[in-house]
Design goal:
It is a single chain. This protein is α/β, with parallel strands linked by helices. Among the domains are: about 170 residues, 3-Layer(aba) Sandwich (Rossmann fold), CATH 3.40.50.12780; about 120 residues, 2-Layer Sandwich (GMP Synthetase, Chain A, domain 3), CATH 3.30.300. The protein is built from 21 helices and 30 strands. It has a 7-stranded mixed beta sheet with strand order 5-4-17-16-18-19-20, sandwiched between helices. The chain has a 5-stranded parallel beta sheet with strand order 7-6-8-11-12, with helices on both faces. Strand 26 and strand 27 form a beta hairpin. Helix 8 packs across helix 9 and helix 11 crosses helix 12. The longest helix is centred in the first third of the chain and has 17 residues. The radius of gyration is 24 Å and the shape is globular. The protein starts with a helix and ends in a 6-residue tail after the last helix.
């Protein structure tokens, strides 16, 4: 049974899925030739190409003097020098004199099913009032405003309010601990904190204000804290510092009009923290014009956005995906964007499909870890809801294994929806590799083609290009508009992290390969590529082979030091309901890998587990897995930011190597 399933999965994964003819007919980019013509112009005439895009997709108070100045050796990157614009104006105001005025901009769905719809006109009023409250609180252009909120409308409203007055927002994911919040506030020198009394997660109340209070004990820069009532729990309020936002917003001196600040193209827009290999988070700084243009154009073309579409990205705004593809990309295009407070499986595993049915979602963008988790619950949950409104699916966050891709295509897309498997990073600002859905056939497990203006290259350790089909490090040769301009307060680390490995190129830290058709396959982080006896093996490839077995729901593979082979292979495996770990099953999984990849990829150990250490956004923390099997659990550090910190102790107890 399992061998048959594996053989079918492998056969299907090798297929190419062309876009449906009707989809291509109505697409913004309808053919491979159209894509190739646009792409060729974007790399041969970047100034002309991006000038046209900037003119057609954004509204400017003052036109730029120079399109681009870029140098990856210094590094120094500037786009649209001399130009002036405002992000909130582009996301709201310019739609108000069009038929979009009364169109839904944001539709918020609460965990318990409560919902609110905000038209562009209503959003404008609320953003202006929030902006005026920030100004009344002493915030001015260039000040850092820190948000520590759940997925509630005030988060989107607040970040747009910052852009209106030229303040720099820094959003800290609401699942992070007090210490993580404190570290980020102090690093960006935040002046005001906006939080809520608490948040809801799977029916439980999380006391956010309590965490914020602990953080603010050691954040001397925070002079004021605005608190939004979400759960109704009682919270401590420090006199002179803490104020309920709703009370302040109702005051008579808060106007419903706020003049948008005319911002320079390279003025800072936001700081967003991402994990660093050293353990200290990096505060990536994105600027105004380049970032906004890049999110607007990637949203428009990669999701093939049409005016009548209802779009849902399931990410949290605390991550870059939420910044770019819940707020800035959709709203700059005048789209209707869904914002969801809850989780995929609460109160039932069809919660996502219920929302798709309720709002007749047309474009759905989620993470592979979500797809795998919902697939584990079985196909029946997808059959109780009407998903016929869907026309395009997307994947983000990590390489999607072919088995999950095929399940997604078959059960959610009903075999008719193209899937855009998007590769990008916090650093890139927006999607940099993804086939355009109406133009290029899709291949399970492949992100596909580079977006306009992006020139990727796969290189060896010495920086030389690899042969077609060979694995290597993914670098990008020239700057695109959305790239982060710096690590806040640490330009030296910015240069060392991204521009010191391969001269004159951006180093992504991800492994990849490109096939003869020019399609890119992402293989995970460079440190997720295992070198076994001189053979480089991508962890994603081994994980895909494991997940192709009928018993396996999810797998994480890491390398560990091996006396003979240099590195050994260790697999953590989560089983589907109805299966239990056994020596016999281990043998089947090893046979599966030998068959799909070869004997060189045979794991040295397989540990059956109930869960994996993941961030709240679903990213598997492989660094922690490596520390566990190396017997270095004392070096793991703070696990409070994990979705389930208790998983770590269970993994330590059950490990097969690395014991003292």
């Amino acid at each position: 049974m399992s061998a048959k399933k594996s053989s079918q999965a492998l056969k299907s994964a090798q297929k190419v899925f062309p876009p449906p003819k009707e989809f291509s007919k109505n697409a913004l980019v309808k053919s491979r030739k159209e894509y190739e013509d646009l792409y060729l112009r974007s790399v041969e005439d970047p100034k002309g190409f991006w000038a046209d895009m900037a003119r057609d997709n954004l509204s400017w108070f003052k036109k730029w003097n120079k399109v681009v100045e870029r140098d990856f050796i210094k590094p120094e990157i500037k786009w649209f020098t001399g130009g002036k614009l405002n992000v909130s104006y582009n996301c709201i105001d310019r739609h108000l004199n069009t038929p979009r005025k009364n169109k839904a901009a944001l539709i918020w769905e609460a965990e318990d099913g409560e919902n609110k719809t905000y038209t562009y006109q209503e959003l404008h009023r609320l953003v202006c009032r929030f902006a005026n409250l920030l100004k009344k609180s002493g915030i001015k252009k260039g000040d850092r405003v820190v948000f520590y909120l759940p997925m509630i409308p005030e988060l989107a409203i607040g970040m747009l309010a910052c852009t209106r007055i030229g303040a720099i927002h820094s959003i800290v994911f609401g699942g992070f601990s007090a210490s993580a919040l404190r570290e980020r506030i102090n690093d960006c020198r935040g002046k005001i904190l906006i939080t809520s009394d608490g948040s809801f997660r799977s029916g439980k109340v999380i006391p956010l204000k309590k965490n914020a209070d602990i953080a603010m004990e050691e954040t001397p820069g925070i002079k004021r804290c605005l608190v939004i009532r979400r759960t109704g729990i009682s919270v401590a309020m420090k006199q002179g510092r803490d104020y309920f936002a709703e009370d302040e917003l109702r005051r008579e001196d808060i106007s419903s009009w706020c003049e948008p600040e005319k911002m320079d193209a390279e003025d800072p827009l936001f700081i967003l923290y991402t994990s660093g290999s050293t353990g200290k988070p990096k505060g990536l700084l994105h600027t105004t014009a380049g970032y906004l243009l890049y999110t607007a154009t990637t949203f428009k073309y990669i999701f093939d956005y049409h005016e009548e579409d209802t779009y849902w990205c399931t990410a949290d705004i605390g991550w870059i995906t939420g910044h770019s593809y819940i707020v800035y990309g959709p709203l700059s295009n005048g789209a209707t964007s869904i914002m969801f407070e809850g989780v995929p499986s609460y109160p039932r595993p069809d919660r996502y499909w219920e929302i798709v049915e309720k709002y007749r979602i047309n474009i759905f963008y989620t993470a592979p870890t979500v797809i795998r988790a919902l697939a584990k619950e079985g196909d029946d949950w997808t059959k109780t809801r009407d998903l016929s409104s869907l026309r395009l699916l997307g994947s983000v966050g990590e390489p999607i294994n072919p088995e999950a891709w095929l399940w997604y295509h078959r059960n959610i897309g009903k075999g008719k929806c193209p899937i855009v498997d998007t590769w990008w990073q916090t650093e890139t600002g927006g999607i940099v590799i993804s086939s355009l859905p109406g133009a290029v056939p899709m291949k399970p497990g492949y992100a596909g083609r580079p977006f306009f203006g992006v020139e990727p290259m796969i290189v060896n350790a010495d920086g030389s290009p690899v042969k077609t089909g060979a694995e290597g490090a993914l670098v990008i040769k020239k700057a695109w508009p959305g790239i982060a301009r710096n690590i806040y307060g640490n330009p030296k680390r910015y240069k060392e992290t991204y521009f010191s490995q391969v001269r004159g190129a951006y180093f992504s830290g991800d492994g990849a390969k490109v096939d003869k058709d020019g399609d890119y396959q992402l293989l995970g982080r460079i440190d997720d590529v295992i070198n076994v006896s001189g053979h480089r093996l991508g962890t994603a490839e081994i994980e895909s082979a494991l997940v192709a077995h009928s018993s396996v729901s999810e797998a994480a593979v890491v390398g560990f030091p091996h006396e003979v082979k240099g590195q050994g292979i260790y697999a953590f495996v989560i089983l589907n309901s109805g299966f239990s770990g056994s020596g016999e099953l281990e043998k089947e999984l090893v046979a599966q890998i030998r068959k799909d990849i070869g004997p060189i990829a045979k794991p040295d150990a397989i540990q059956f587990v109930d869960g994996l250490p993941k961030t709240r956004s679903g990213k598997i923390m492989r660094r922690i897995l490596r520390k566990i099997i190396e017997g270095k659990e004392h070096e793991i550090g703070d696990t409070s930011t994990l979705a389930d910190p208790s998983v770590v102790e269970k993994l330590i107890e059950g490990r097969k190597i690395g014991k003292h």
